[in-house]
Every structure is written in C-alpha cells, then in structure tokens.
Design brief:
By secondary structure, the protein is an alpha+beta fold. It has 14 helices and 22 strands.
C-alpha cells in the first residue's frame, strides 16, 4: 500500500488529501503534515469569515482572464475541474453554495466553518491522518521515495509527496526544491490597496465611486471598476485588480508610483469638456461648489474643486480658461502619487513560487523529480479577488489527487 504525504494543511493540501484518500478507496495511506496547530486557517478568515469558495464563471476562456500569472497553464486544468465542478463537489456533500450579485460564491450559511467542517468530515470518513505541529526539517529522496523529517527527528517515508504550503512558503521547502533544480520565482505581494499621503483624498474615507478607470504612469497597466476612498488611500475592485496585474512592476518600483484616475470612464474627454462648456453657458449663475456635474458625490466634487483650484462660491460663468482645463483634468485624469501598499484584509496573496514550466499541468507532477507534486498558491499562480485563488487551489489539488492515485 502506497503512502501519500501532503505538506500543508490549507485549502489545496486538504482538498488533495481527502480526494486522494477517496479515490484510493482504502488502498493508500494519506498523511497531511501541518506546521501549525490549525488547519485551513486561510479558509477560516477568507471573505470576512464567510469563505469565498469560488466564482460564478463557468466559461474557461473567461475564467482564466482573472489570473495575472498562470492563465495559459490553467486552461487545461479548468476543463477538468472548474467552478461548476467545485459547486457540485460541495453540494454533493451537503454544502449548498449561493451566488452574490458580483459573481462571488459563498456557502449558504455565510460561514467559513461550513467549508472547514465539510473537509474535516471527508478527512475523517476516508481516514486521512493529520499531524499538526509537524515542522519539516529536511526532505531526502532515495529510490523514488521521500524521507521527511521533522524538528524532533521524527521521520515519515512517502511514495508520493505533494507540496501545498501556500504563497508564503519559505525555509526548508524552497531550499530543497532548489537542490532538486527547481526554479523559484521571487515571492512578491499581489492583491493590495494603495497608500496615498494626501489629506484631500484620505478625508473622503468611506466614500465609493461605482465606476472609475485607473492607470499607472509609464506602464501598460490599467483597470476599471468600483473604487473606495479609505483613511490610507484608495481601495475597491478597480485598485485590487490593478495591483494584481501590476504586482511585479510595482514591487520593482518599491510601491512608489503615479496613477491617473478617470472618474467618468463612460464619457470621452471631449464629451466632458462639452458638458463643462454647456454648464458655463446655460447655468453660469449657479455656484460651482453646489452645482456638481455627472452626479458625483458632493464630498468628491468639493475635493475636485480644491484640486482644480476653484473656489466653491465661484459662479460657473466666472471660471477662467485655466480653471476649466484643471477641472477637465481632475475629472478625467486625476493624478495622484502612491507611496506604499496595504494588505487587503486578511486575504494576503502572493505572486511567485515554483516556475510553471517545470510542472506538468495534466498531473501537477514535477517535470524534474518523479513522484513530487504541487497544488495551490505554492506555484507561480495568483488571481484577483473574488474566489479565483481558491478555485486554483481546488483545481490543482484535484488533478494532483487523481494523478497520485493513478
């Protein structure tokens, strides 16, 4: 009887373990090694404690667009196991998922504990052995088997080894992979908010704009969507998606860069200019501060007045050419300096990890080391917020489980 060892008790590790044990049907010993005393800790806190299990996106070609890194490699795997399969898997085990307006999918209970309980129940059902507080001290390979030793000298021999240690794996795991000639892409944060030291911006904390377009100076990166002003800068889907796709470039810039925000992306700059001229001509006696355009929130409009150097009490008809040009720029190309990043809630995501070209995505097995497999964020795959990172975990884990049993 073969022994399968999974290092990492997170979403990918546990999903691989329970499915490998289920598929083996008693013909394999499946052991999960977790360095802490808590399994599925990221599942617990994700989605504000509700667990954003996956996303209601069942078309593979659309699904992969949410992955800044790994979108090409995941096409095949998503044909094998995608969000529909994830939904079916959990519902077959009594966990009903619901879809919210933005496509995110959560357990109907709105509790991440529901997902944890489901996975732990499966682990118990198929006799997955869990060894918590097992800190791997060394991994040796001999005769296509692996000897894993912990900090106390305890040893486990594995026929198949799955690494699912997440996006912040450090120490012995990556050191050993490098000895086996695996290449590790540098780990850098992905999915973060922008810090802006500008009181005119931070004073708008709590205010949201339903649709903006944000671009980064001197780069190809831009994204659209809702934006939220915070007490440290800006956040919201538009910012988070931009941070993910630009993660490597922003890391290289030490998170000091300039952005341009178009608060009216549904209008051309020429159309906005015409609107300003029409307001000056037909509503010139109204005060600029109390008669805003395009239904922007009042606090945001007053901030734009400050940026455009226009007095709130000034009449529209009294605006000079420079002030009108300033206003146009503030509405369609507001320039701000970003001076740092902030982690997005507890959902810390990294890009980087095991180089994708060194993995067989039909099996998730290493191309360099026989019987060595990978799943989840330990590989160089990451996604925007919305359940896509968990879907990568479920998919790669399921493929690895099938391959290890086969």
């Amino acid at each position: 009887m073969q022994t399968i060892v999974v290092i990492g008790g997170g979403a990918a590790g546990m999903f691989a373990a329970v499915n490998a044990a289920r598929l083996a049907n008693g013909d394999a010993n499946v052991i999960v090694l977790e360095k802490s005393n808590q399994l599925l800790s990221k599942v617990k806190v994700s989605g504000g404690g509700r667990c954003n299990v996956t996303h209601h996106c069942f078309e593979v070609n659309e699904l992969v667009k949410n992955y800044p890194r790994g979108f090409k490699e995941l096409k095949g795997p998503f044909h094998f196991f995608n969000p529909q399969n994830t939904m079916d898997w959990f519902e077959e085990r009594g966990v009903k998922l619901k879809t919210e307006a933005d496509g995110r999918m959560f357990p109907a209970t709105d509790s991440s504990q529901t997902i944890i309980d489901c996975l732990m129940k499966e682990a118990n059902k198929f006799k997955v052995q869990i060894r918590a507080n097992f800190l791997v001290n060394s991994i040796q390979q001999s005769d296509e088997k692996f000897e894993i030793e912990n900090q106390n000298g305890g040893k486990i021999i594995a026929d198949k080894l799955l690494i699912a240690t997440g996006g912040n794996s450090q120490g012995i795991i990556f050191e050993q992979l490098k000895k086996w000639n695996h290449t590790i892409q540098p780990l850098t944060p992905s999915l973060f908010t922008f810090q802006i030291k500008d009181t005119e911006i931070t004073d708008l904390s709590g205010l949201s704009i339903p649709n903006v377009s944000i671009s980064i100076f001197n780069s190809k990166h831009s994204n659209s969507g809702p934006m939220l002003f915070t007490h440290w800068g800006i956040s919201g889907p538009a910012v988070l998606k931009l941070s993910a796709f630009a993660a490597i470039d922003l890391f290289k810039a030490n998170y000091n860069f300039s952005i341009r925000i178009n608060l009216l992306p549904e209008y051309s700059a020429e159309k906005v200019k015409e609107k300003i001229q029409d307001t000056v001509q037909y509503e010139g006696r109204k005060k600029v501060g109390t008669h805003s355009m395009f239904e922007l929130p009042k606090r945001c409009w007053l901030m734009l007045m400050q940026k455009a150097k226009i007095e709130e009490e000034k009449n529209w008809a009294d605006l000079n050419k420079q002030q009108k040009e300033n206003l146009l720029k503030c509405l369609t190309a507001l320039e701000l300096q970003v001076s740092g990043k902030s982690t997005f809630k507890e959902e810390f995501v990294t890009c980087g990890g095991i180089t994708l070209s060194e993995i067989n995505f039909k099996t998730m097995e290493s191309k360099l080391v026989k019987n060595l497999f990978f799943a989840g964020e330990v590989i160089d795959v990451d996604a925007i917020t919305g359940g896509f990172n968990f879907q990568n975990a479920w998919t790669t884990a399921m493929i690895a489980a099938h391959a290890m049993i086969k």
